[in-house]
Write a structure and sequence with these properties.
With about 160 residues, the protein is an alpha+beta fold. It has one domain. The protein is about 25% helix and about 25% strand. It contains three helices and nine strands, in the order E-E-E-H-E-E-H-E-E-H-E-E. Strands 1, 2, 3, 4, 5, 8 and 9 form a seven-stranded mixed sheet that branches. A two-stranded antiparallel sheet has the order 6-7. A hairpin with a 5-residue loop joins strand 4 and strand 5. The longest helix has 16 residues.
C-alpha cells in the first residue's frame, strides 16, 4: 500500500494553498471560490508515513506515543487525536510522506502495526482480540488530510 494523494471528496473538495509571502504574511488561496473549502483526504498505511526529523513540528514524545497506543487499543482512535493526521505533499529521503501534524499518532500506529504483524490474532498487551476498527486502520490505512503549502512558488 502506498500513500497517494487523491481527492476522496470528489467535486466537493477544494485544495487550499497556504501561501507564504516574502513579507512573512500568510494568506489562503482556494482553487475555486464557488465550492466550500474542504481539505483533500487520502488513506495512508502507517508505515508509509515518515517519522524523519523533517516530519512534524514537535519532537517525538515516547510518553505520548505510549498513551496513544493504550487509547487506540481501547478502541478510542478518533477520540484522542482530535485534529487527525495532516500530511504534506512532500516526501522524506526514503520516499515516505512527511507529516505536518500527528507525528505521535503515527508513531503509535506504526508500533501497533508491528505488534499486529507479530501477533495478528491476539493483542499481546491485553491478551484479547485486537479492536476491529484499529485492525482496519492498520491494514487498510489511516485517513490523512493533506496540507498544501506554497512558499515563494515551490510546493513544500
Amino acid at each position: 500500500m502506498s500513500c497517494h494523494i487523491t481527492c476522496a471528496n470528489q467535486a466537493k473538495c477544494v485544495c487550499v494553498f497556504i501561501v507564504l509571502l516574502a513579507s512573512g504574511h500568510l494568506y489562503l488561496h482556494a482553487t475555486s471560490p464557488l465550492v466550500p473549502v474542504r481539505p483533500c483526504v487520502c488513506s495512508c498505511a502507517p508505515q508509509d508515513l515518515s517519522l524523519h526529523e523533517l516530519s512534524g513540528w514537535r519532537d517525538v514524545d515516547e510518553e505520548r506515543i505510549h498513551d496513544l497506543k493504550t487509547s487506540f487499543r481501547g478502541g478510542k482512535y478518533g477520540l484522542t487525536v482530535t485534529s487527525g493526521i495532516w500530511i504534506l505533499a512532500k516526501t522524506d529521503p526514503d520516499g515516505k510522506r512527511l507529516i505536518d501534524d500527528g507525528r505521535s499518532a503515527v508513531g503509535a500506529l506504526r508500533q501497533l502495526h508491528n505488534e499486529h504483524d507479530a501477533s495478528p490474532d491476539m493483542d499481546p498487551e491485553t491478551n484479547e482480540p485486537w479492536d476491529a476498527r484499529l485492525v482496519q486502520i492498520l491494514l487498510q490505512g489511516v485517513e490523512c488530510k493533506v496540507q498544501l503549502i506554497l512558499q515563494l512558488g515551490f510546493f513544500m
